[in-house]
Amino acid sequence: MVHPFIKWVGGKTQLLNDLRKYYPFSHYNNIYKYAEPFVGGGAVLFDILNSFELQEIYISDANSDLINTYQIIRDRPNDIITILQNLQDDYWNIALDKRGYYYSNIRDQYNNLRILNKDNDFLKKAAFFIFLNKTCFNGLYRVNKHGDFNVAIGNYDFPIICEKENILNVSTKLQKIEIVNGDYYSCRSFVDENTFVYLDPPYVPLSSISNTISYTTKHFGYQEQLRLADFFMELNFTGAKLLMSNSNPKNSNEYNDFLEVIYDGFDIKNVTATRSINSNTYRRGRVGELLISNYSLDNI
Ligand SMILES: C[S@@+](CC[C@H](N)C(=O)[O-])C[C@H]1O[C@@H](n2cnc3c(N)ncnc32)[C@H](O)[C@@H]1O
Question: pTM score, two decimals?
């Protein structure tokens, strides 16, 4: 069994019980490929890997450091485990009130590794990425406009930085998976009538003042949601089975039917999820989420 090797804002672990009901594999016997173009922490990917044997799998994300980490875990699990174990040993041995310096030092090293040339650069970047995720405030990932990770240290006594068993198991599961850094559109050539595509884009902003979380330096706003709806339409013509989760804009304005309008004609279902509801205060709460699909969610 495998689980996400990082926490990720918008991670779907809380929603798995709802989503699982709608996986099409057992209902359509021609579906044996899987694509997840906004993979993030991979809650759904790992859930599917735990339950189904599929022939071909494709994952991508626009966050290059995240994708580098997936690739390093796939290709060099033992090397990353060695570095993570050392980081964990160091960190645990430092008194709580003295950890800020160590954390900032790793964060600087991480940000200074901008152009990755040597094999070791990719490895270090991936290890620091996991270290920062496990020790920063709430496991947030946020970059400024220069692309520098700028989340402050979190408050954990003994954070598990090196999950050795899980990394080894994840590595085994990732062996035959195509792992791509880039825009979701790149999955187009992989997708055909035998594919299940799960799309979990950055959310429609909950309010005009709350920005979406900056997973990358590029903002995913309303224009991007429109481009994605066109892509959904394009994928629909391939015969693939498509499932998308997105925040319900009605959370902030009961009259906002933006998603209902742009996905008119597709199956839309309301579910609720626990997640951060405000990127400035990190408040968490139950919010409405929409599932959108091109197959009937009621008859599955
Ligand atoms: C809501 S999160 C996905 C969370 C994931 N389902 C999980 O369980 O962790 C959205 C992801 O989309 C990625 N992203 C943003 N813009 C993108 C784009 N144009 N193409 C592909 N991925 C993108 C972000 O880096 C982020 O990881």
Answer: 0.93
pLDDT tens digits, one per residue of 152-176: 999 999 999 999 999 999 999 999 9
123 and 268 co-located in one domain: no
Q: Are residues 20 and 102 in the same domain?
A: no
Give residue-wise pLDDT tens across range 215-225.
Answer: 666 678 888 99
d(CA 172, CA 166): 10
Tokens of 82: 């060695």
Q: Whose CA is nearest to atom 3 of ligand 1?
A: 40
SS3 for 2?
Answer: coil
23 Cβ below 6 A of ligand 1: no
122 and 194 share one domain:
no
CATH of the domain at 258: 3.40.50.150
Residue at 201 is within a domain: yes
For ligand 1, the distance from its centroid to the CA atom of residue 16, given in whole angstroms, is 17
Q: How far apart are the first and last CA of the chain?
A: 25
Question: Domain limits at 138?
Answer: 69-168
CATH of the domain at 96: 1.10.1020.10
Number of domains in the chain: 2
Pocket lining: 279 vs ligand 1, CB cutoff 6 Å: no
Cβ-Cβ contacts under 8 Å for 131 (sequence gap 6 or more)? 84, 87, 91, 106, 161
Q: Check if 260 has its Cβ closer than 6 Å to any atom of ligand 1.
A: no
**Would the CB of 6 count as within 6 Å of ligand 1?**
no
Decide whether any atom of ligand 1 lies within 6 Å of the 46 Cβ. Answer: no
From the CB of 198, is ligand 1 less than 6 Å away?
Answer: no
Q: What is the pLDDT of residues 251-263, one digit of tens each?
A: 878 888 899 999 9
